[in-house]
Specification:
- The protein is α/β, with parallel strands linked by helices and 270 residues long.
- The chain has a domain of 186 residues: Vaccinia Virus protein VP39 (Rossmann fold, 3-Layer(aba) Sandwich), CATH 3.40.50.150.
- The protein contains twelve helices and seven strands.
- It has a seven-stranded mixed sheet with strand order 3-2-1-4-5-7-6, sandwiched between helices.
- It is globular.
- It starts with a helix and ends with a strand.
- It binds S-adenosylmethionine.
- S-adenosylmethionine (SAM) binds next to helix 1, helix 3 and helix 5.
- This is Methyltransferase type 11 domain-containing protein.
- One of its GO terms (molecular function) is S-adenosylmethionine-dependent methyltransferase activity.
- It comes from Catellatospora coxensis.
- InterPro entries: Methyltransf_11, SAM-dependent_MTases_sf.
C-alpha cells in the first residue's frame, strides 16, 4: 500500500543524491558500524541494505567481507551507491514491497529508512520476509522529541514563521510508532522478530555549516519542503536566520557542533 507520506518521500528524494551526500550522509553514517554489529555482519554474510542512499552501509558491509545487495527507492541514490560500493548488487526497490526472494539474507539492515516510510510496520514485516530463519534484522531511526542538532531546523523555521506545508504530509497516526527505544523494539516484535533489543546512541555531530545548509537548500527534510515553496528573497531571509542561529553552535574550527542521538534496534527472524 502506498500512502500520501510515501508519495511525498518519492518527491522529496528525487534527484537528491548529491545534496544528500554533501549534507546528511555523514550524519547517518555515524550509526553504520553499530548497525552492522547489531545484524552480526561478517565475512560472507549475505547482507541486504535497504534504503541504501549513497551506499555508506553497503560499502562498510563489503569491507567486512559480506556479500552485499542494496536497494533504494530513488534512482539517483541507486547510481550513487553503485559508485560507492561497486562490488555490491545495487537495485531499485521500494518498501514495503521489495523485489527480492523470501528468506534469502543472513542480515538485513535499514539505516534511517523506517522513518521514511508511510507504513513502518509493513516495512519491517518486509525486512523480516527476506531474512532467513535465524537471520538478523537491524534498523535505526531518529528519536522524538528531536535531539538538539535536529531541533535547529525547527528553531530556524519558527523564527521565520514557517509552517509545515500541505505538500509534506505526516505518517498517518494509526500507522505511526513511538520514536523511542520501546516504540522501535515493539515495532520489530510486532513484525514477528524475536530476541529484540534496542539502544540509544548519542554523539556530537560536526559539519561545515554550508554543507549542513545544502540539505534543506536542495529540498531535503521538512525545512527543505518549506523552502521549496518560497521565492528567492524569502529563502535568503531563512538563510540569514540559519546563519545567526548556527553562529551560537560553532566549534573552534568554525564547524557546527551539536549533540544528536539515534535509536538502533535489532531482532532475529523466526
Ligand atoms: C536518510 S536516507 C538514509 C540513506 C542510507 N541508509 C544512509 O545511511 O546514508 C533515507 C533513504 O531511504 C530511501 N527511501 C525512502 N523511502 C524508501 C522506501 N519506501 N523504500 C526504499 N528506500 C526508501 C531514500 O531514497 C533515501 O535514500
Amino acid at each position: 500500500m502506498t500512502t500520501p507520506f510515501d508519495d511525498y518521500e518519492r518527491r522529496l528524494w528525487q534527484g537528491r543524491a548529491a545534496a544528500y551526500r554533501r549534507s546528511f550522509a555523514a550524519l547517518c553514517g555515524h550509526t553504520a558500524t553499530a548497525l552492522l554489529d547489531a545484524a552480526r555482519v561478517g565475512d560472507r554474510t549475505r547482507l541486504l541494505d535497504v534504503g541504501t542512499g549513497t551506499g555508506t552501509v553497503a560499502a562498510l558491509g563489503l569491507a567486512r567481507g559480506a556479500v552485499v545487495t542494496a536497494v533504494d527507492a530513488e534512482q539517483s541514490m541507486v547510481e550513487a551507491a553503485r559508485r560507492e560500493a561497486p562490488a555490491a548488487d545495487v537495485r531499485h526497490g521500494v518498501l514495503p514491497d521489495l523485489p527480492l526472494d523470501d528468506r534469502h539474507f543472513d542480515a538485513v539492515v535499514g539505516n534511517f529508512v523506517v522513518n521514511h516510510v508511510g507504513d513502518p510496520a509493513a516495512a519491517v514485516r518486509e525486512l523480516r520476509r527476506v531474512t532467513r530463519p535465524g537471520g538478523r534484522v537491524a534498523v535505526s531511526v531518529w528519536p522524538a522529541p528531536a535531539p538538539p542538532l535536529q531541533q535547529l531546523w525547527g528553531t530556524v523555521a519558527a523564527a521565520c514563521g514557517l509552517r509545515r506545508p500541505e505538500s509534506a504530509p505526516l505518517v498517518a497516526e494509526e500507522l505511526n510508532f513511538t520514536r523511542d527505544r520501546d516504540g522501535l523494539a515493539n515495532l520489530l516484535r510486532g513484525a514477528g522478530l524475536a530476541e529484540v533489543s534496542a539502544d540509544t546512541v548519542t554523539w556530537t555531530h560536526r559539519a561545515d555549516p554550508e554543507d549542513w545548509w545544502a540539505g534543506p537548500a536542495n529540498g531535503i527534510g521538512v525545512l527543505g519542503a518549506m523552502l521549496a515553496v518560497l521565492d528567492d528573497a524569502a529563502v535568503a531571509k531563512v538563510k540569514a536566520e540559519y546563519d545567526r542561529t548556527v553562529a551560537a553552535h560553532l566549534d573552534q574550527d568554525g564547524r557546527l557542533a551539536l549533540p544528536t542521538a539515534a535509536i538502533i534496534a535489532a531482532g532475529q527472524a523466526p
